[in-house]
Each structure stands twice: as C-alpha cells, then as structure tokens.
Amino acid sequence: MVVPPPARPERVTKFLKPYILRMHFTNKYVNAQVVHTPTATVAAAASTQEKALRLAMEKEKESTRDVAAAAKIGMILAQRLLVRNIPAVTVFYNRDQKYHGKVKAVIDQLANAGVKLI
C-alpha cells in the first residue's frame, strides 16, 4: 500500500522551485534523480546500478563510476525528463560538490539535451 506524503501549505509551495536535480556518487556507482519538491516525489531517476545499463557497461568493459559513466547518466536522465515533459530543473549541490568532474558531466549532458537549468 502506498501512502502519498502530505501536501505542503500553499504559501510555502509558491516559492519552491518545482524540480530539483540531486546527484550522489559512490566508489562504484553514479546516481542522479530529479525530485518534484511540492509533492516530495521522484519525477525521474537514472543510475549505473540499473541492471540493463550496468550489464551493458560491463560487457563493453566500461567503468560504472568515472566521468564517462556520469555523462551517460546525464544523457539518460535528460531523455527521461523530456519524455515526461519536464523542461527545466534546479541543481542542488551537496556541501562537498562543485561544478567539476562527474557533477559537471551530468549537468552538461542535461543542458546539451535541451533541459534548462534554473
């Protein structure tokens, strides 16, 4: 049984940015997801942990954790966002993330695919 989270008060949701890009990088995998802030749900996500992608990358002897993998995740996430008619996202950086390396690869692929960054 799935119980949706309670809706936030109207006065708060007026000022929230609707879609936020969150990225998480581990020693083995790259994860990126876009969260719909007013409902606190995941609108789209992509990860190198997905079975089909992971197996394809292992077959081609590609790494699931480097900058090239992050770029591939950015492209997949951009395609999923455009299919769901989400034209723009806001980038959320963790305190240790900067616009460099894997973060840059994901963001650049989103921008190149036509997703606007707010």
From TrEMBL:
It holds the Pfam family Ribosomal_L18p. Keywords: Ribonucleoprotein, Ribosomal protein. GO terms for cellular component: ribonucleoprotein complex; ribosome. InterPro entries: Ribosomal_L18, Ribosomal_uL18_bac/plant/anim. CDD domains: Ribosomal_L18_L5e (cd00432). Belongs to the universal ribosomal protein uL18 family. This is 50S ribosomal protein L18. It comes from Salvia divinorum.
